[in-house]
């Protein structure tokens, strides 16, 4: 059975990633890309679906693990009665092929260690042909091939490869695992010691751009590294998570594939990169967005593949039992075909942000032409029902947050003309902007409850309403927002954390429940900060930081009933929210203040 989600750490190479458990087992890895088929899939099943274990033979008395400085090099120390070992796990950024290095180093005594490698391509369904040539182990099936080099003898047995060895103080045993296309030449050998040094240097050099300081700098730096690890280097796209189908409810059906790039994350992500000092990554993310969004505005999607692919069919993998029997296991994501109105506003907002922070590089005519086309389309669709940012699978509705984001699109267009001299029908845009604002305040607000509501005609609230002051729709201290925050606290708080909304099968088209959505909890802290409730904002933020696992990673949600992280992991959106809220609280002029006031000051603070 797979470990609790919090017991995993991520290693990656900015093209794909792997999850390593506290017990030394690699239970998830896809190659050559994040969204490729997995060949270690024990996370969603068992060892027969692909796994690479590494552990002492004796009883483990204690386990400690950490990343080596500001890197993604993972060190796991295991102590037994006979001694202690350190397992170092890493991948090589920008390598020609996805490469995993595992090194076992003796710290004290003499420890007997066993490793077992079970390769199963295509999400655990394909057993490769494994053979040995010139002391190197080759595994091949269809388009996939893996080569394994080891400093100790390996043996094949019962469709897996294994080794047993001893390490004494100061000794090291290394394994190098390289995935490559089966039709290409076998990759050359890699020196593991040199590779470890090189990877530490790569991450350390990259982190020199990080400018954050203050009481939460360590958490912000770890989040920045996590975002970089979730970036597909060749294109600049950032995936929502490295995993697929980790459940929002253990044993439930809310299991989605997050190995894709969502447009609505763009503005949040751009802010998080900029406030951390990573301007190059912000530029690459913006370029990815422009390429992905290019074409007819009516074809704009909610999410895309890492290279901008648009066709992302959703499939059910019937042969996998799911993480702790959470079925069905889904790969791909049907939300790519949904109509979600808010993404149009998000695209226009992120390009507006670009105008503000990058005054030294004037906006291209092509970028403005794209925005004009999006605005023309938005004029004709803003009053239509949609599936909301929560990608509900029930009937479309007039979701309040979706309308607000349509307002954002026209508001940013007006400011492009007023502040930056762009050409456009500004009088019409102002009129539409004002019409949307008036409609939301009339139909999206319940005066009897003094709160905005999830959708027109509803009486329930939605944590997405916390975004209204964060995008500048209303001031945070507006009486209607004070009432909305109070309604969120009254109905959506669970043990101090925020649910997205109260689960309703008629709205969602799904059964069961889910955990508290961690980005929404950060948004509540942002609202507190904007309302001047600084102590409450800091208290909630510290509570959220305390949910990070021992290596500083957070999932999408937290189940307050079972007391564990749930959902896909690690979640980019959560780490983006962490960075932005930390900056809001530590500087008093972070993304929430910039975006809500639309100040023309420098967003990097």
Question: What do you see in this structure?
Answer:
This protein has 605 residues and is of the alpha+beta class. The protein has 2 domains: 5-206, Beta-galactosidase, Chain A, domain 5; 210-597, Glycosyltransferase. 33% of the residues lie in helices and 23% in strands. The protein contains 16 helices and 30 strands. The longest helix has 21 residues, at 400-420.
Short description:
This protein has 16 helices and 30 strands. The chain is of the alpha+beta class.
Question: What keyword list fits this structure?
Answer:
605 residues, alpha+beta, Beta-galactosidase, Chain A, domain 5, Glycosyltransferase, 2 domains, four-stranded antiparallel β-sheet, 16 helices, globular, disordered C terminus
